[in-house]
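Help wanted!
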Amino acid sequence: MTSAIDLVLVLVVVLDLVVLASSRLRGAIRTVALQGALLSLLPVLLATGGQAPLHVLLLALGALVVKGVAIPGLMLWAMREAAIRREAEPIVGFVPSLLLGAAGTVVAFSLSGALVLPAPGRQALLVPAALVTAWAGLLLVMTRRKAVAQVLGFLVLENGIFVFGLLIADVMPVMVEAGVLLDLFAAVFVMGIVMFHINREFSSLDTGRLTHLQD
Amino acid sequence: MIFAALRVLGLLAAAPLVGGVVTRVKSRLAGRTGPPLLQPYLDLRRLLSKGAVLGHPTTWVFRAGPIVSLAAAAAATLLVPLGGGPALVAFPGDFLLLAGLLGLGRFATALAALDTGSSFEGMGAAREIAFGAFAEPALLLGLVVLARAAGSASLSGVLGPGLAASWPIAGPALLLATLALFAVALAEGSRLPVDDPETHLELTMIHEVMVLDHSGPDLAFVGAAAHLRLAILGALVSRLALGAAPPGLLPSPVALGAGLLAFAVAVGVVESTTARLRLTRVPQFLVAASVLSVLALVLLLR
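Answered by r_m:
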């Protein structure tokens, strides 16, 4: 079981790097969807038998539906509506952002040993994977120009928080988790509306244009 | 010792066949019959029976290039443990020599290309060296990961019978290293996402453009060296990927043959399903391979 969890977490980290390096937005959205689907396996794999099976299954199913299907589907729909294909030129290029992601990975793995956790020693890879995923999400939000890519970054960031939350899944009530997933859904929905307005106003999703004041 | 020597001879003999299998897989996936499996051997024999034409501006560097690159590739086969058995030559740190010999072969070919004074060949040499500079960190880091996982600094210790024991312990790291080394094999073997072995448009060629001026036996040597490099890395990657099987399941010649066949089929499938990357995107592909190796190393050092 431990090796399966390790494999899933390593794949999650690799998918972070894939998203950082991909210039095609459609592929990046699919990668994030795959990451979300992989994450939905984790509550089942991590279950120790201490919690109610219904709780674990609900969490896994909710993550799969929201992260793996609904939000990526919404984003692909938004891309079709806005007719954009790829990130033109990010503020930090693809190779530098990949290297930054790799540097973040090294830092996350070396720092994670120093963190004091409520449930120490449960899963050694859980904390570094969560930190790397959150770092990749932050990088995407900061360095990409297109609104779709920034929303993707937000999703990746939330995936990192989800991994971190699994550490305390034993004590977290299911309503809190459902609330987080619902918040995420609402946030992406609002961002979809914002994207629609940016696109209608400027006929492009380049957020750089928002910095200029206009009448 | 005898068996190790026989395995090396087997790899030397089977190297062109790897290229033949790749071509056959590509043809079949494209719905064609394709050339015979032994076509690379026939090509080598035809070239060896011809005379060489040397351009006026060329010097001894041009003639030495193919010989040095073939000799370096042949020397590298001695270092690789084939099919799980020990290598013919093994000492601590021999994986550095393997990377060095592969680099020496590339250097000799590039120098011979520059010696012709042709602008096209200079362009090809510049590209080959530039991409080689990106492929080498991935190769070296991947080999360091293997050495660290096995706790041995020699390739024979790394890829020997102990490999089956390190897969359950360091599985994710070894998987990442396998992927990184496969990407390096595609780059070193001038295979598709990096270089198209079939293109004959000078502006897009990398390896092929460097050897435009070679002819006859020289071209045969260059071709044989290219086959050998792909086969060496194929033997390395396939041994690594199939190393999870318990030792002694297959006798080493069978394991070597099956591994090379699986590697050739994998390369053929990758070549059939991917398009060649734009030249500016190739470093990104190779940096990604290096990053995979770094991630594997971090997982091991944790």
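OP: Thanks! One thing I noticed: Chain A touches chain B through 21 residues (CB under 8 Å).
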